[in-house]
Design a protein that fits this description.
Number of strands: 14
Distance between the termini: 61 Å
CATH superfamily of the largest domain: NAD(P)-binding Rossmann-like Domain
Structural class: alpha/beta
Radius of gyration: 23 Å
Shape: elongated
Strand order of the largest sheet: 3-2-1-4-5-6
CATH class of the largest domain: Alpha Beta
CATH topology of the largest domain: Rossmann fold
Bound molecules: uridine-5'-diphosphate-xylopyranose
Strand content: 5-15%
Number of domains: 3
Length: 436
């Protein structure tokens, strides 16, 4: 099938590349000429395992190209995906839909034959219907269908998630569009994912409800972790013990410094705004947002407490600043709260992160950067793990400790075992790991 993908952000680029890998002819479009030039040179603008190789393969096969020329890309396309950003509008929690509407109107103006406009961007309930109205008003001469196809891929595992999804959700209103969407995803049928066909509104709600539920699950285990610390229980045992219950499930029960990233913070906020406006408030999700924000601040206090009540004048090694491993994304990362709080209390912070420096340097002014964990920890009073990169899991703790001036290890992701850290000479603090 001929596919156009409008927007080469995380979701757009990964989806476009994966659809081309299915064998479809895909043209990816972006207004950002510098980005398109980079893509045309074979460079990936984001760090995502496997993306570069898949991109190269499909460009070489002639199935994938990049352009700023929306009209040319859309001409003759059987499906035009819109995967532009929906950032939080400044000063409130609503999703900013101006990019979505602008893209839909530009596509409608450029279409030369019947087509389907598929919204991949995360959009509040009612947006697809509004796009449909605008498109019909702009092009009464053409049959343009609208479908909602939210994306559930995780950064760092995006290719795997796209190729082996738990489910594909599609909101459609007519049979022809349903068939077109089935054809697009047919290569996945071999692996048997469930395709959920539903209304436009339900598809939109599924995306927000899924993210809000996962954010709630993480926040729940984070609060249980705090209680474990007070009572002597161990949150990892508790997570395993409850996660084996099939009704609960073991995923997303890792206690940590709070969730971050491009989706959970933005989508939970937008969902609560929708709830408030519909006079159907989501009090659980509202509380999750509050608890998560407070948690990030609390983590800085945890580090300060572990350092004996003050970090003034102390060197602190920070291991990992991206919002999670295998990405260079810093959006809403807990480190953006924790590191400035430590610097504000007089600490000299030295950061190491396998991919975070390019974005992180400007976002974390006043911090120094090291090439590896040993260099970061040299002469430090404390080492603090904020992001659980694999490179840190295998560290030689004895060597790390020997280079340090102090013995404090604060492991906000529970990647080390207390006994091993203690054997290496560390005073160890994890998350939710009571000492009884
Ligand atoms: C998320 C959703 O998982 C994905 O389906 C959606 O499309 C986009 O948002 P992503 O933001 O890439 O994906 O990362 P995810 O792996 O879900 O992690 C989000 C945040 O939660 C990270 O900060 C992570 O560290 C944190 N997290 C996750 C925990 O603290 N504990 C967990 O058990 C899981």
């Amino acid at each position: 099938m001929r596919v156009a993908m409008i927007g080469t952000g995380y979701v757009g680029l990964v989806s476009g590349v994966c659809f081309s890998d299915f064998g479809h002819d895909v043209v990816c479009v972006d207004l950002d000429a510098a980005k398109i030039a980079r893509l045309n040179r074979g460079e990936t603008p984001i760090y995502e395992p496997g993306l570069g190789a898949m991109m190269e393969k499909n460009v070489a096969a002639g199935r994938l190209s990049f352009t700023t020329d929306l009209a040319a890309a859309v001409k003759g396309a059987e499906a035009v995906f819109i995967a532009v950003g929906t950032p939080t509008r400044r000063g409130e929690g609503h999703a900013d839909l101006s990019y979505v509407f602008a893209a839909a109107e530009a596509v409608a103006a450029a279409l030369t034959g019947p087509s389907v406009i598929v919204l991949k961007s995360t959009v509040p309930v009612g947006t697809n219907r509004e796009v449909k109205r605008r498109v019909a008003a702009a092009r009464p001469d053409l049959a343009i269908a609208v479908a909602s196809n939210p994306e559930f891929l995780r950064e760092g595992a995006a290719i795997e998630d796209f190729m082996r999804p738990d489910r594909v959700v599609v909101g459609v209103e007519d049979d022809a569009t349903r068939k077109a969407m089935k054809r697009l995803y047919r290569p996945l049928n071999l692996r048997g994912p469930s395709m959920v066909f539903t209304s436009l509104e339900s598809a939109e709600m599924i995306k927000y409800a899924a993210n809000a539920f996962l954010a709630t699950k993480i926040t729940f285990i984070n609060e249980i972790a705090d209680l474990c610390e007070k009572t002597g229980a161990d949150v990892q045992s508790v997570a395993r013990g409850i996660g084996l219950d099939g009704r609960i499930g073991s995923k997303f029960l890792h206690a940590g410094p709070g969730y971050g990233g491009s989706c959970f913070p933005k989508d939970t906020l937008a969902l609560t705004r929708t709830g408030q406006e519909a006079n159907s408030p989501l009090r659980i999700v509202e509380t999750v947002i509050e608890v998560n924000e407070a948690r990030k601040r609390k983590m800085a206090e945890k580090v300060i407490d572990a350092c004996g009540g003050s970090v003034a004048g102390k060197r602190i090694a920070v291991l990992g600043v991206t919002f999670k491993p295998d990405t260079d994304d810093m959006r809403d990362a807990p480190s953006l709260t924790i590191v400035p709080a430590l610097i504000g209390r007089g600490a000299k912070v030295v950061i190491v992160d396998p991919e975070g420096r390019r974005e992180g340097e400007a976002l974390l002014p006043g911090a120094d950067w090291a090439e590896d964990a040993y260099e970061a920890a040299a002469g430090a009073a404390a080492a603090v793990v904020i992001t659980e990169w694999n490179a840190f899991r295998g560290l030689d703790l004895e060597r790390l400790r020997e280079g340090m001036a102090g013995d404090v290890l604060v492991d906000l992701r529970n990647i080390f075992r207390r006994d091993e850290a203690q054997a290496a000479g560390f005073a160890y603090t994890g998350v939710g790991r009571g000492s009884v």
